[in-house]
Amino acid sequence: MAGKHDGDRPNEPVIENRQARHDYAIEDTLECGIELLGTEIKSVRASKVSLAEGYVSAHAVPPSLTLHSVHIAEYPPAGKAVQHEPVGVRRLLAHRKEIVKLAEQVKRSGATIVPLKIYFKNGRAKLLIGLGTGRKAADKRQAIAARE
């Protein structure tokens, strides 16, 4: 009988949105689950995801987080009958208090919630989202200079 393995599989992909850290000053991050269909998770495991145009909307009443404009490619072996929408609205899973806190911060400060990274934890897809404020061109140059 095969036992459960501990930790992550070594060949699980990590998809990052490096442009978001350049365009936004990330103040706070939150790990949340993402609700995906079978063909979507297969495409994520094959690293066929683009987070570049994505954003997250948070609503306090009723508490909900939704992911918009993230492209998850179709999974060709599944056939045309069971394919998912490549760009659609996907539900994110987090605790109610965290969702309300994020929604209040966005409403109060005018910040944006951006997806930073998709990775696997214990076989489940997780999305790291960040609360960030937009940087101007001068701020981007200063951040690059400080980093180097």
Descriptors for this entry?
about 150 residues, 4 helices, about 40% strand
Explained architecture:
The longest helix is centred in the last third of the chain and has 14 residues, at 96-109. Strands 1, 2, 3, 4, 5, 6, 7 and 8 form an 8-stranded antiparallel sheet that branches. 26% of the residues lie in helices and 39% in strands. The protein is of the alpha+beta class. It contains 4 helices and 8 strands; from the N terminus they run E-H-E-H-E-E-E-E-H-E-E-H. A hairpin with a 2-residue loop joins strand 7 (112-121) and strand 8 (124-134).
| Termini gap | 52 Å
Overall pLDDT score: 89
**Mind summarizing the main beta sheet?**
8 strands, antiparallel
Provide the structure class: alpha+beta
Radius of gyration over all CA atoms, rounded: 17 Å
Percent in strands: 35-45%
Unreliable spans are none
Pattern of helices and strands: EHEHEEEEHEEH
List the helices and strands and how they pair.
Layout: E1 15-16, H1 18-23, E2 24-34, H2 38-45, E3 49-50, E4 55-59, E5 64-72, E6 87-93, H3 96-109, E7 112-121, E8 124-134, H4 137-147
Antiparallel strand pairs: 1-7, 2-6, 2-8, 3-5, 4-5, 5-6, 7-8
Question: In summary, what is this structure?
Answer:
The chain is α+β, with helices and mostly antiparallel strands and 148 residues long.
